[in-house]
Amino acid sequence: MPRPVTIAAAQMGPIRRDESRPHVVGRLLALLREAHARGGELVLFPECALTAFFGHWWIDDEAERDAWYESEMPSPVTQPLFDEAARLRIGFCLGYAELAVEAGAKRRFNSSVLVGRDGTIIGKYRKMHLPGHADHRPENPFQNLEKRYFQPGDLGFPVWDAFGGRVGMLICNDRRWPEAYRMLGLQGVEAVLIGYNTPRHYPEYPDTDRLADFHHLLSLQAGAYQNGTWVIAAAKAGIEEGVEQIGSSAIVAPSGEVIARSSTLGDELIIHRCDLDLCRTIKQGVFHPRNRRPEHYGLITARNDE
Amino acid sequence: MPRPVTIAAAQMGPIRRDESRPHVVGRLLALLREAHARGGELVLFPECALTAFFGHWWIDDEAERDAWYESEMPSPVTQPLFDEAARLRIGFCLGYAELAVEAGAKRRFNSSVLVGRDGTIIGKYRKMHLPGHADHRPENPFQNLEKRYFQPGDLGFPVWDAFGGRVGMLICNDRRWPEAYRMLGLQGVEAVLIGYNTPRHYPEYPDTDRLADFHHLLSLQAGAYQNGTWVIAAAKAGIEEGVEQIGSSAIVAPSGEVIARSSTLGDELIIHRCDLDLCRTIKQGVFHPRNRRPEHYGLITARNDE
To answer: What is the CATH number assigned to the segment(s) B4-302?
Structure first.
């Protein structure tokens, strides 16, 4: 029995370093309204969607750095997005840099929230896999300072029953790790929402730059197929403050097939009526849990030996 | 510094049910010699390469069934393959149905051996992930009785230092599971050898029949990329006793790119000079172990909850 939910991936073009949050929220609102006009029930925005990706710059001063994070969600500046979503009865997933004060200490995460069709937050995810480095590498054309600017996520890999199915979130680099999809898959996920900012060039290993789009899509497709889930991915794309980022926002079926894909490097909506029931064939077919051998996977959860 | 090893995948066309093992060994010898003539140092043969894939038929009688297994390796009938390999100084990986007597009891596995350039066995692997069913399903056009004819492998996921690198083996359905590659990847594998017999049609979930080659290649490519390893896969292909099996034997680089692929459904050799040093870029780049979060992967090794 079909269980359709219409999901959009809202790709964004670059955000200027000096672009104000209200201006960015205006862009998000335009994409939200387009999604609604095209029948969307849920729209995915990119990772850290409210500002330029500041992890690409070294920022010495703590106060200056903290200005790139959100200390509340919603906040006065993001509230219009929540209000409009409630008015249009459309949910969304929004990535943002999170500054939390927990047990009296500042903590910083690369986070996303899942927001229901009534405009209230259903759940939060904090990025688990942080790429890049913590040190300043001035010899590089740009930095990749996620290890400096964020702590690794501490909320595990949650799923939520929402939008008529079971939904999970990953963020950017998470999507390359089969463990991340598997953690969601073992909890029966049917739609994985993934925002990302992915530079084409990696100063530390440029050999694979030419394959950036391929590796991105390969990871989505394998994660979808091997767990029998829809995978929806939204890029911040194009040349942002001198850093070229890939596009290739995509909607991938549980078969692993790319069903929709962006065709620009700018603000662009792709949308598909995803039948969540298609997950069942894969989950109950080749990847039935009875065929797993978890007692032989011990190394996967062993501590890193470095 | 390049570390090349020339590896061949020896795809086989169908084997007739009444084809004798010596005849099949003759076909393997021809492929072995071709590999040697083309500079091969290691040649991969398919899963259960010595006979037709008898898991596709219900066989009631135990003695009749046992005749499809090998009770020793090498045996008089397979010894010529070992002898010729030693003479030509070329290693091989051979899949076969193994009948072992252990602790006084018969045990049956879907196994493969890795044989060195001196013709001696380096190691053995027993297939971990058994697809299919144990019951007779006469309404189906053919059976998939691996769960009846084999026990799940009990040797873990070993790797061996051989052929100038680190080598592991998987068999057929194993290749669809990211856990299998990851177990080898965490041990530093640089070349994964995979023989398979893959029907195009699955009576239990025919919706994905049209995607059989795509799913096969997707699994190889993701496993290669996500672990920074060469993946070499050899099919038993073509219509064997009425069962259509896919070809698409392939050599996949650590980048996930398909470097060589068979173009027929018959006996066919594909070969590539694999630089094992290419593994390093991927292993030490995006998939550096420091970026893993094993403490959050607990469900992956938890017991199946069924």
So the answer is: 3.60.110.10
